[in-house]
C-alpha cells in the first residue's frame, strides 16, 4: 500500500512540474498580449492620421513639405508595425501552444498512474519537449519583434528631423 502512495505522490509532483511551465509561460503571454494591444492601437492611430492626409488630398488641398514627410513616415511606420504585430501574434500562438502541450503533459503523467503503457509515458515526454520547443519559438518571435521595434522608433525620430 505504501508503494501506491509513493507512486501517487510522485505522479502528483511530476504533474505539477508542467504547471510551473504554464505559470511561467502565462507571464510571458501577459507581456506579449500587452505589447500586441499597444501595437494594434498604434496602427489604428496611424491609420486615422493617414486618413486625414488622404482626405486633404481628396479635397484637392496640397500637403505642405512637413505634412508630406509625415504622411510618408506614417505609411512606413504602419508597414513596420504590421510586421511587428504578425511577429507578436506568432509569439502568442507559440506560447499558447506550449501551454496546451504542458496541460497534455500533465494529463499524460496522470494517466500513467493508471496505465503501464510505455506509449503514455512517451506521450508525456514528447508533449513536454514539444511544449518547451514552442516556448523557444515564441521567445525567438518576441526577440525578432523587439529588434524590429527599434527600427520603427528610428523611423519616427528621423521623420521629425
Instruction: Please tell me the total number of domains.
Output: 1
Strand content: under 5%
Question: How far apart are the first and last residues' alpha carbons, in Å?
Answer: 78 Å
Helix/strand-derived category reads mainly alpha
Shape: rod-shaped
Give the overall average pLDDT: 88
Largest sheet: none
- Total strand segments: 0
Percent helix, as a range, is over 70%
**How many helix segments?**
3
The Rg value, from CA coordinates, equals: 24 Å
Order of helices and strands: HHH
Structure, explained:
This protein is mainly alpha-helical. It contains 3 helices and no strands. The protein has one domain (2-160). It has helices spanning 2-58, 65-114, 118-160. It is rod-shaped. The N and C termini lie far apart (78 Å). The mean pLDDT is 88.
Question: Could you list some keywords that capture this structure?
Answer:
161 residues; mainly alpha; 3 helices; 93% helix
